[in-house]
Amino acid sequence: MLDLETSLIPRIASPFGGGIGRHGLVCGALTGGLMALGLLQGRDVSSDNEGKIRVYDAASHFLSAFSAEFEEVDCRQLIGYNLLDPGERQQAKENKVFDEKCRQYLGWVADYLQTKTAK
């Protein structure tokens, strides 16, 4: 989809996991998907108002589709754990939440972007 090989993308995306630095806000799979959507469909100059509207609409559809599928967009609601709490974070690890639930969200985002942005 994106033929990019750079160490910058993982570095830029790093703080978004756990609902933005473990705060349980917007799911990291979603924020990563939004970054990919921006790379695929974003505007190149800030004065491109049509491009801004186009990518905002695409982002809105993306978030609405995720919410329709999983009923939530916030990490804490999706996984049921407060990742700022070390005990809850450990429980989430032991219960394989990151391997199972988070992987499911990542897979959905990848499939959505592959389908909706294919040219």
Number of domains: 1
Strand content: under 5%
Radius of gyration: 15 Å
Distance between the termini: 10 Å
Q: What string, H for helix and E for strand, traces the elements in order? A: HHHHHHH
Unreliable parts: none
Tally of helical runs: 7
Structural class: mainly alpha
Assign a percent range to the helix content: 55-70%
Structure, explained:
The protein is mostly helical and 119 residues long. It has one domain. It is 67% helix and 0% strand. The chain is built from 7 helices and no strands. It is globular and about 45 Å long. The termini are close together.
What descriptive keywords fit this protein?
0% strand, mainly alpha
Short description:
This protein is mostly helical and 119 residues long. Helices cover 67% and strands 0% of the residues.
Furnish the topology, listing elements before pairings.
Blueprint: H1 8-13, H2 17-20, H3 28-41, H4 49-70, H5 75-79, H6 86-94, H7 97-116
Helix pairs in contact: 3-4, 3-7
